Amino acid sequence: MPKIRRYLPLLLVASLIAMSGAGCSREARKNRHLARANGYFQSGDYERAEIEYMNVVRLDPQHPVAISRLGLVCFEQGRLAGAFALLRKAEKLEPEDLDVRLKLGLTYFGLAGLKEAREEAIYILQKQPTNEEALLLLVESSTPKDLDDTQQRLQKLAPQSGRAAPLHLALGFLDLRRQDLKAAESEIQQALSLDPKSSAAYQVLGNFHLMRNDTAQAGQAFKTAYDLAPIRSPRRLRYADFKIQTGDLEAARQLLEEITQKAPDYVPAWARLADLALAQRKFDDCEKLI
């Protein structure tokens, strides 16, 4: 018995060292997965990034970076249901992550949650008054009853934003929603003069020309928006939709195929290709795409 007592402290120390080693090993594995995930994410390899971020979450279910990045991956790929669940959790973990809040707001809008989308836009603009996407989301998510309030909010942002291009564009978009084409044109042109590479501005300009029934000018504006937009972007889809609406189905198919070739993981482009095949009664193609 005395011999057993003599060895108990040594056994206790050994067990503590083993437990510590296991903890260090777990932390090291998590850090390795996180480093690889971040590298894949930055390079746009979202499939591998998702796998590595999932490995991080298995080791640390409340890891804020891994959860937010998983939500952003889903968002970039157009998987809105997955993005919604993950971005909501990420927002709770890091309420001041404005990129997460913006993507969550855009996801709300895509899922018809106009009130929630507008609330996210308002929150972001309190912190970043020149955030172009948040400004446009504020206007787009406003119901007709909200338009006066939105106008007041945009006017209050003017001193903070210095009347930068995003604010002019938001005001032009709001004028467009009010069907004040003269005022809309002036604001949109001011936005483009300040930022001639704004994909968003060219999309709003395309909508302006459509309201004037000028499909030729609208098509040119949507094409420019397409060319300036990232490969995984609703603005690229908008040009394809315009081609479908104007009856140029072959051009729409080519645009969508270009997107899927460069971004095979972008779900909305595949869905539109399937819809297009169905509309053309190409059922075999539709089945392959689905």
Q: How would you characterize the overall build of this protein?
A:
With 290 residues, the protein is mostly helical. It is 81% helix and 0% strand. The chain has 16 helices and no strands.
- How many DSSP E strands? 0
Oligomer: single chain
- Report the biggest beta sheet as strand number plus sense, adding barrel if it closes: none
CATH H-level name of the domain at 25-38 and 45-93... which superfamily? Answer: Tetratricopeptide repeat domain
Radius of gyration: 25 Å
Number of helices: 16
Summarize the structure.
With 290 residues, the protein is mainly α. Helix content is 81%, strand content 0%.
Features:
mainly alpha, globular, single chain, 290 residues
SSE layout:
Elements (H helix, E strand, L loop, with lengths): L1 H42 L2 H14 L4 H13 L3 H14 L4 H13 L3 H14 L4 H9 L6 H15 L3 H13 L3 H14 L4 H13 L3 H14 L5 H12 L3 H14 L4 H13 L3 H7 L1
Helix pairs in contact: 1-2, 2-3, 3-4, 4-5, 5-6, 6-7, 7-9, 8-9, 9-10, 9-11, 10-11, 11-12, 12-13, 13-14, 14-15, 15-16
